[in-house]
Amino acid sequence: MERNLQDVVVLDLTKVLAGPYCGMLLSDMGAKVIKIEVPERGDDSRAYGPFQNGESIYYAGLNRGKLGMTLNLKTKEGQEIFKDLVKKADIVIENYRPGTMEKFDLGYDKLKEINPKIIYGSISGYGHTGPYSQRAGYDIVGQAMGGLMSTTGWADSKPTRTGTPMGDVLGGLNLAIGVLSALHRQRMTGKGEKVDVALVDSVVSAMQNINMIYTSEGRIPERIGNRYESTYPYDSFEASDGDVIIAAANDGLYCRFCKLIGREDLITDQRFATIQGRLDNNVALKEEIEKWSVNHTIDEISDLLNENGIPSCPINTVDRIVKDKQIAGARNMFPKQEHPVAGEIVLTNNAIKYTETTSEPHKPAPLLGEHNDYIFTELLGYTDEDVNTFKEKKVI
């Protein structure tokens, strides 16, 4: 099947997770993403586990489908080569600290002189403007500074980082959205632009209704575990073999749920007669619901409730997710791929599905510098002698 970005060339200078996640999405959608890495060492994540046959699966998952080249941007020759690449590219993405590309004389102002249509996408901790712009930023900084950690956990627990690097993932998603939007404008006007995404901003934006609690009520949101601020029951409940989500989020669903479990008395109980009453008395209501739920398994509860139109699901561990008939089966969220060193690996798919085109992973992540010869000779037109000289000078 065709891919939507088959005519798009992306120069990917990013490393670790946030930037590579953006590049991964663009590659899955068909863009020719050229992964540019430091010679000899490469992306830091090549040293991050888990490993299979000595190959980083962390790296393999986030950089699948890309063409791999090495280039030392600290050298004059490397900078000139990069400028040649920019002439042939549509998008550049990087996640250096603000000002780093300018030190190489490769900032957006310089690159747009070379290619006025270039889309320049950047991810950093705090963005390229403001008093914190020069501070370093990682996922945990985004989660903490953006407020996510302050509302994650239980009332008697310390602020908690989410188990997955949501700050990085949100930053990567926002950059992908940003550069594609800018590319659409570029196709209409012929003009490029810079897309400036901050990890902290990405987390703050995702907080949405949590922020609004304070801005509208003046109340600082607290950690409340798995329940929701706006309705109840919308929480996790103990089952005989784990925990299960029950989300009877409105009066109709709540009444249906109570009848289904044989507890019509919970409908007429004045403490629970309204959404606000159920919120105010959530502890008591949870105790009543768990008198029923502890006698059933997570799958029994989920199946029963879903059959009756009430949102519910187990709190899955990864071993269950990779075998799930919906997630792993119908939605193909764990496709297999043959890697030249690691062998057969299991990837985590992206979440975007199309009807007429595909965004499934299509090629393995590159070995370090794997496509140097192709990029330098066929794409850029350098001779074999030029390439050998670059190697001798440690430009590549």
- How many domains would you count in the coordinates? 2
Estimate the mean pLDDT confidence. 97
Structural class computed from helices and strand pairing: alpha/beta
Highest-level CATH class of the largest domain: Alpha Beta
CATH architecture term of the largest domain: 3-Layer(aba) Sandwich
Strand content: 5-15%
Low-confidence stretches: none
Description:
- α7 crosses α8.
- The protein has a six-stranded parallel sheet, with helices on both faces. A three-stranded antiparallel sheet has the order 9-10-11, covered by helices on one side. The chain has a two-stranded antiparallel ribbon with strand order 3-4.
- 40% of the residues lie in helices and 14% in strands.
- It has 18 helices and 13 strands.
- The mean pLDDT is 97.
- β1, α1 and β2 form a beta-alpha-beta unit.
- The chain folds into two domains: 262 residues, Crotonobetainyl-coa:carnitine coa-transferase, domain 1 (Rossmann fold, 3-Layer(aba) Sandwich); 83 residues, formyl-coa transferase, domain 3.
- The chain has 396 residues and is an alpha/beta fold.
- The protein starts with 8 loop residues before the first strand and ends with a helix.
